[in-house]
Amino acid sequence: MNSFTNRIPDAAVRRFSLYLRYLEDFERSGIRNVASGVLAERGGTTAAQVRKDLSFLGSFGKRGLGYSVAELTGVLRGVLGLDSVWRVALLGAGRIGTALFRYEPFRARGFHITTVIDNDPGKIGTRLGDVTIRGEHELESALQDDRTDLVIVAVPAAVAQALVDRVVAAGIRAVLNYAPTQLRLPGDVALRNVSMMVELESLSHALARLRR
Amino acid sequence: MNSFTNRIPDAAVRRFSLYLRYLEDFERSGIRNVASGVLAERGGTTAAQVRKDLSFLGSFGKRGLGYSVAELTGVLRGVLGLDSVWRVALLGAGRIGTALFRYEPFRARGFHITTVIDNDPGKIGTRLGDVTIRGEHELESALQDDRTDLVIVAVPAAVAQALVDRVVAAGIRAVLNYAPTQLRLPGDVALRNVSMMVELESLSHALARLRR
DNA sequence: TCCTGTTTGTGAAACTGTTCACAAGTGGAA
DNA sequence: TTCCACTTGTGAACAGTTTCACAAACAGGA
């Protein structure tokens, strides 16, 4: 009975992404209904967790039956903002930036990389896929012209903060950061960090403990 | 006064990685002591958080002065298991795998990618940097021969689980997963997932809320 | 219609992580 | 030596998240 008016816990939102992925698998397999326990088993969590998560969105499961795959898929797409196209700018066309650019599932989910910025003179003017790489000096105009919603940062740590300050000043409200540095930005800008070093080191911590 | 015998919260361990990064910057700048507030400001957290985190490791700050950069660096390296070399196998030499392989900071931190596995016949036998790519059928022998500590999964979701089952059976106890699927594995195997879709979708959720 | 087996939705309890607030050290100046 | 400005370490309060447990709803069969 918990409705849209309330804020949804961040931990739950992240699981929604996973649930949606599994529901799409089920949909492809022609499965029409799915119980919380099935979704839980697939996602490495518990049935109670799944039900609690979904209860933040309202209540549209059928007792005794489970959830309609089609309906739940639709609701999750809506909540995750996947019912519209998001225009994405990629800052940095190095190895990581290029790998991200070519990652197909982005486009399938409605994330269109329409802008690529790099400061290497050898790259400016060349194409990455169907996008022409532009120089850093064009950042603001590119973000504006392309009506960018969201920025992915894949530049060296040393230049990331300065670039992001400009991005925020240009009105962008969502940043996905791959640079190995903690960006500081206003509270009303959504930021997510992805760091392979942090994950790796948390693993080596676990391993080191095991060894003792 | 909290000593090594206790388990350290996962959230704290992940912040240790960040603290260490900043401490290394400070060390390079010749700064010898650092207060919790300074570390906090750099890492986008609070002074109390920093002190609480560090208290899990013992107590070696000096009241009125802060922490010795050199000492703290050493302690964090130890806790994160960075005082030895870890031998890493990379499964999947596609775009993401290749980008990971070439990511220099790994090696600097003591993570040596000694094994690369791919099932593309066109790639088997070719080299990636100084490592020869081997076929999937050699997985077990490669892990054994190279005395692998840790495995990075960068293969398509469809084949990830089967491959990881073999990896676990071969005795590996730490897995870093880039495949967009939730791997199921025994409780005594440490697993970390890195998913750009989850992060992106959590951003688009935030944006979609903003729009309402 | 009634019974049975299944599954949801949700308060309450348990747990985990974060923030607060302050006594207790510390170095340096007077 | 005494004082002062500063900073740690840590219980306690608080906030957020997960798990538990069970009444209520439903489908299908007898």
Overview of the structural elements:
2 copies of one chain form a homodimer. The first copy, chain A, has 212 residues and is α/β, with parallel strands linked by helices. Chain A folds into 2 domains: 10-79, Winged helix-like DNA-binding domain superfamily/Winged helix DNA-binding domain (Arc Repressor Mutant, subunit A); 86-198, 3-Layer(aba) Sandwich (Rossmann fold). Helix content of chain A is 44%, strand content 17%. Chain A is built from 9 helices and 9 strands. A 7-stranded mixed beta sheet of chain A has the order 5-6-4-3-7-8-9, sandwiched between helices. In chain A, strands 1-2 form a two-stranded antiparallel sheet. In chain A, strand 5 (127-128) and strand 6 (131-134) form a beta hairpin. In chain A, helix 1 (10-28) packs across helix 4. The longest helix of chain A is centred in the N-terminal third of the chain and has 19 residues, at 10-28. The radius of gyration of chain A is 20 Å and the shape is globular. At the A-B interface, helix 1, helix 5, strand 8 and helix 9 of A face helix 1, helix 5, strand 8 and helix 9 of B. Chain A binds a DNA duplex (30 and 30 nucleotides) through helix 1 and helix 3.
